[in-house]
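Re: duplicated header lines in exported structure tokens

Our pipeline writes sequence and tokens for each protein into one text file. With two proteins the header for the second block appears twice in some exports. Here is an export where it did not happen, for reference. First protein block:
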Amino acid sequence: MTGLGQESADAEFERLAARYRPIFDEIAVGEAQRERDGVAPHEQLRWLIGAGFAGLRIPRELGGEQARLSTVLRLIAELAVADVNLAHVWRNHFSFVEDRLYDRRDPRSDEWLARLGRGEIVGGGWSEPGAAGTAGTISTRIARDGDDWVLDGVKYYSTGSVYARWSTVLALDPDGTEVVVLVDTGSPGVRIGDDWDGFGQRLTGSGSVAYEGVRVPSDRVFAYATRYSYQRQFYQSTLNALLVGVGRAIERDGAAALRARVRSHRNATVPTPTDDPELLEVLGSVSAAVYAAQTAFERSLVLTDALIERAGAADAGDDAGLGHASVQAVAQTQLVATTAVLDAATRVFDALGASGTSHRLGLDRHWRNARTLASHNPRVYVARLLGDALVNGRDLTA
């Protein structure tokens, strides 16, 4: 499925952004207060669903917008400026949409694409708490019981599940084969624990979900092997989008806080903070860092779009070269965005004085959210993989 046609990527994005920006602006109202009070953005999510956000990637013949993946990710970045918690809720939803787009030969796919486009939101259950060995150890299992399956296991980092009608769960079947189980979150035996205890991303519902003897119809079990081939690019690009959104929020809130500052420091060279060249230099540096992150992010999406287009071509093969370039660009972007946004989130306080630490302003939430997002994929590993590819020619896609 492609969003390409006569309309360019930028034109498509601007057309859809014009539709959603007024909603994003409404979502931004009270975001800092929601963060302080721990109020989940259920109402704001309904606004997005009502406006068709869930159907951005759904084919037009099924009632969706059929937008490019780059457009969706750029819109997520804009949403993250308004509310990064709410923006993160969509990650697992759009991932399952990509699964179904990638495997439309499966007769179930079009039915699910239509349902998802109407706003049946999907959360996710992939990682497991306290698993021995490396990340990726799977203890969640499904077993046959008549015509159905029964699911047992516990997942953590289940982003979006407290908001979702469905949850995608990675499990092993009796043969030890990986499967994706689509679970109705209202089923008996499903316990969603809104127990995420991270200091950032506190309203994403990223805690635990327990599945105890949950009955699942056979038509809701999908082979993991049929999932889309560009998962790595999508998952990491979503994190990059969220970081870019946080960076833009830092730039916005830092400038507003400096404009509101009336008292200068005794060591300042001028009496008015908004005319202080040193404070202006801080905000200028923040702006440049955010620009670098956003530019790298948008450039990486061009390659991912191209990879998706090639995946639908008859002569595409596996397009290893393009896939490698896309993964590398996404990884490089992750290093640029992580470093730039974390630095901006700290440096902005140099322009604000003690008043900038006010709990009312909540500027610390930007650093907490950025730090939590960046911790998904530690920079030391990303940098090492890129260096290994550069020096030793090792394949990042391996």
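Second protein block, exported in the same file:
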Amino acid sequence: MRRFSLWLRGRPIVADSLLAAFLMVLDALGVGNEHHKASYLVFSLLLPVPLILRRIYPRAMAAAMFLLSVLCTLVGYLVGDDTSGHVALIGLGVMLYTLVAYVGRRDGLIYLVCLAVDLGLSLLILSEPVGGDIALVFAIYALCWTLAEFNGARHAYDAEVAARLAVADYDKERRAHEAVAAERTRIARELHDVVAHAVSVIIVQADGAKYALRHDPDTAERALATIAGTGRDALRELRRTVALLRTEHAPELLPQHGSAGIARLAEMMRDAGLAVELELTGELDDITPEVSLGVHRIVQESLTNTLRHAGSSPKATVRVHRRADDILIEVTDSGGVPVEEPDIPGTGMGLVGMRERVAVLGGTLSAGRTGDGRWRVSATLPLRAETD
């Protein structure tokens, strides 16, 4: 029974057709007491018809029902019958309920006034009110209005709940898309940092090995060893990044670089031909993995850019200083300018990637030339994540 009720709720025409058919049958059963059976049966069939489309076209069907009621009264006057015997006139109350519940009180009030006029017309023409008792008629209308108020309030509540659920679903979907976009950005940033750094070092070392191959085999051998080591490190980083994609994101999967990782990075850049001065102060090995990775990537990207763009015999000074509430990273190069266009073109995304990473960690970053012509990257990363 409950399933049938839910089925009818989703098909208003079917439910209202059943109501109209019920009123037709109930009204037609009273034909035996009427003198003009033909006219009575005609209105028994016509009066319930507007009920079929009452929820689809409420105003039009209410007007049609009212006009049929007036016409029924006039025909009853002409043929000398009392129209109060039409049970189908209960449909007037149903139409009043429909207008109040589905359209609004204003339309319901106008319709109620029209019904009062129709009732007065019946009193004047037939000397009998529709329904036989004016008090009963108004009681029926009052009941229909009250039910409509309750049902309208329920519909308004259901609509508000549905709207809130729709907003919640949209917001959930939007957050999911934003999370996917943020994860893609994070992955792209990691891949850029790993690949750009490794490929830059490999290209520089390969060029050096090519020139030193005939005249200085030892230098060429060291360059090739650096290429091999850089390639292995890059492959290891890529495998770690791919592992993050295949598993749930967890902080323990992030690499713990710390001071040893920065020192190893500086040594690798020295092997690539970049003179690096390193200054590490404060405890850098017990910070959160996210901040540790951020420090490592900023130093890595800054040194890679120096190797690319600082000309011949490049130099860089790296300062990583842990303070009370944050970590200060400063990378300053020697300020050299390449004689010609660099052989290692960049994508222009290195600085953008650093800014994105620093923004995610809630820090600040500045980059630009100093007064003496050198290029400096300065970033601060807060340590508040340790206590969050």
